[in-house]
Write a structure and sequence with these properties.
Elements (H helix, E strand, L loop, with lengths): L10 E2 L9 E6 L12 H5 L6 E4 L5 E2 L7 E2 L8 H26 L6 E6 L1 H10 L8 E5 L6 H7 L6 E6 L9 H11 L4 E6 L8 H16 L1
Parallel strand pairs: 2-3, 2-6, 6-7, 7-8, 8-9
Antiparallel strand pairs: 1-3, 4-5
Helix pairs in contact: 2-3, 4-5
Length: 220
């Protein structure tokens, strides 16, 4: 795994032109990179003019493709293997988050994690185990890893919004109610949005719902 200092990627500074008062960290899916999600800033910066958006590249080259990066390997998609993978990368992401907050003089309640697919799995795992809650977790087309460990390991309960297409053939739509049930059982405030006819992706309605969720969570 790469050195922590090399977890870098594109960023978009606050639309207001002033210092960042909120930070939105975007975690991409497997085989992609930070450029894949940084354009979400274009949709949400009007709602969050004082927010900076950062989209780090995952630390490892994707082992299923000559292109892109991964937060953990998916060659073995068993729950045990994926949980071991996300557990290994979690300290890298936590260090990145802590440094990013410190550089901007922000506290965790001014940070939101947004993930897509594997980035959602990673965001949920990391956020729920941080000692201080972040402002929000917004997850698209993902899943909750290690649900059986959550009650024992959870340290914070930030609000969560999960958005999933009911035609997703990559991460099956059944992952949404499964995650919702486990999060509710652990006392996490969770809301869900099922997008009719949507495959493994993000649509305009999902972006709109996500944007207002971020605004409410970060600005109150």
């Amino acid at each position: 795994m790469s050195d922590l200092a090399k977890l870098t990627g594109p960023k978009v500074l606050p639309a207001s032109g002033g210092p960042a008062r909120q930070l939105v960290v975007l975690l991409h899916g497997v085989g992609a990179d930070g450029d894949d999600l940084i354009s979400l800033a274009d949709y949400w910066s009007a709602l969050l003019p004082d927010a900076e958006f950062v989209s780090p590249n995952a630390p490892d080259q994707c082992d299923m493709s000559p292109y892109g990066f991964q937060w953990f390997s998916l060659l073995d998609r068993s729950m045990a293997a994926m949980t071991a993978g996300v557990k290994k990368v979690a300290p890298v992401i936590n260090a990145y988050i802590d440094e990013a907050l410190a550089e901007r003089g922000l506290t965790p309640d001014k940070l939101a994690l947004v993930g897509f697919s594997q980035g959602t799995m990673t965001s949920l795992y990391v956020a729920l185990r941080r000692p201080e809650p972040v402002a929000a977790v917004l997850g698209y087309s993902g899943a909750l890893l290690a649900p059986d460990l959550l009650t024992a390991e959870i340290k914070s309960r930030p609000p969560v919004l999960l958005v999933h297409g009911d035609a997703d053939q990559v991460v099956p739509a059944q992952a949404l109610p499964a995650a919702q049930s486990a999060l509710q059982a652990a006392g996490v405030p969770v809301d869900v949005e099922v997008r009719p006819g949507l495959g493994h992706g993000i649509d305009q309605e999902g972006l709109t719902r996500g944007g207002f969720f971020l605004k409410r969570s970060l600005l109150g």
